[in-house]
Amino acid sequence: MTVKNITELLNAKKYAQIKKELNEMNSVDLAELLEQFPQESMVVLFRLIAKETAAEVFTNMNTEMQQALISTFTEKELKDIFEDMFMDDTVDILEEMPANVVERILDVTDKETRSRINELLQYPQDSAGSLMTTEYVDLKKTMSVREAIAKIKRVGIDQETIYTCYVIENKKLLGIVTAKSLLLNDENALIGDLMETHIISVRTHDDQEEVSKLFQKYRLISIPVVDTENCMVGIVTFDDAMEVYQEEMAEDIALMAAVQPSDDSYFGTSVFNHAKHRILWLLFLMLSATITGTIISRYEETISAIPLLVSFIPMLMDTGGNCGTQSSTLVIRGIATDEIRFSDLFKVAFKESRIALIVGAALAAVNGLRIIVMYQDPRLAILLGISLMCTVFLAELIGCLLPLLAKKVHLDPAIMAAPLITTIVDTCSIIIYFAIATHLFAL
Fold first, then answer.
1. H or E, element range at 235
2. What pLDDT, in 10s, does the model give residues 120-156?
3. Which residues contact 112 (CB under 8 A, 6 or more apart)?
4. Alpha-carbon gap, residue 255 to 263, rounded angstroms
5. Structure pTM?
6. I need a labelling partner for 102 at 20 to 30 A (CA). Which of 55, 95, 250, 378 fits?
């Protein structure tokens, strides 16, 4: 179904046909489709979606559209939507809503649900506690496989996942057992004999980015969240971990482009906020770049004697900046995937140094040949060759070391990306260039 087709059916008031078409679609696709309609039409279409899928569609919509729908919902519609929603999705939505909307949602929830929501909302933002859901299947070690399967059938419909079940005694997490294990073992076998006791778990206050890395490292579907006394308080599921991973990647991309990260979408952010997120970094980088101009002005006599030197400054600065960016990008990626740690600093520096020598030599050779052909000046070729070698070497080292140092002092390594490294390398390359020129030409 396309927007045009549905619009034609809406105008013709063929609601039964629209309902049939909508309810054959995937909930994610439905959410994307509804977001393309104006609010009035979107509300009509949403009410045509089957009750059992409406909550899932609502969860997949952006915050602006969710808020628009909530403003039109009756108390019963609001209650029905949030009753069918998983707890972690409810908390995620509430965190994005204004206070008056949150109050209205909490008013239609029962006392027990409200208590669980408030508990989850108290965990620090970006922690495992704020990410987890309290909807999981818990079993006792004294249960038989038959009893465990019966319980899963009874309560599983309301749980986020039933593939992994958690064995708990006096609120303590003892082990885990998978649905596969239950199906493949004798129905009289005890859960205590089947459960896996070597458990990968996280604490409620662990950083959510570290939690998402555990999913990638161990290929988990869900991970239990425990408190300081190893009492089970919830689980984090794979889909939530992947959302965190995507958010962190988006944040890193923004930082690498010298843009302040924002949780809002591109079109959902106002022009003023876009400008505000960019201008601070641009001001900092612009003022930092004045250092390069100051350095150049110190070599006015050298430039006056050989004006041609100025024409090579952009090439030298761009090459240094590009080399630094390449190095920093690879190191930042290595840090993000836990391949590179601060303890690898000297190992990384040694590797980048060797790369710099090869790259610098190749660039210097090609550029030196060009200089000789164009200007028939061997000294100028030597000057550019040495300057390129030194600039590339320095840029590669700066590009690999700064992200590691940032990580060490608990800053986001992505801050030390292209714009900042380019500014630093520009300054260093100019100093190297004119220092060598002054001595080589004895000016």
1. strand 232-237
2. 878 888 888 888 888 899 999 999 999 999 999 998 8
3. none
4. 13
5. 0.61
6. 250
